[in-house]
Amino acid sequence: MPKKKAKKSLKPAKISKQAAPKKERISPVRYLKQVGLELKKVAWPGRQEVIVSTIIVIVVVLILSAITFVLDISFTKLLTSVSSAIGKGKG
Q1: Is residue 65 part of a domain?
Q2: How many folded domains does the chain comprise?
Q3: Are 35 and 28 spatial neighbours (Cβ–Cβ below 8 Å)?
Q4: Where is pLDDT greater, at 29 or 7?
């Protein structure tokens, strides 16, 4: 005879009722000083990198705008011709 496997309990795990330790509140002045220190650690892009990135963004926006414009005009003409053909067919 095969042995029966014990069923696993589907009860949720117990959650600890201990409260998380409260964080210390800091003054706005100390907070701003810490923000300033963190901003000094940031690796800011150079002027040339910003210019190149800006040009890339502008070119991509212009290309996508042109594609959207062409699609808009195409669908407008298509729907206008279909609706006028449907309108003529009923009369």
Answers
A1: yes
A2: 1
A3: no
A4: 29
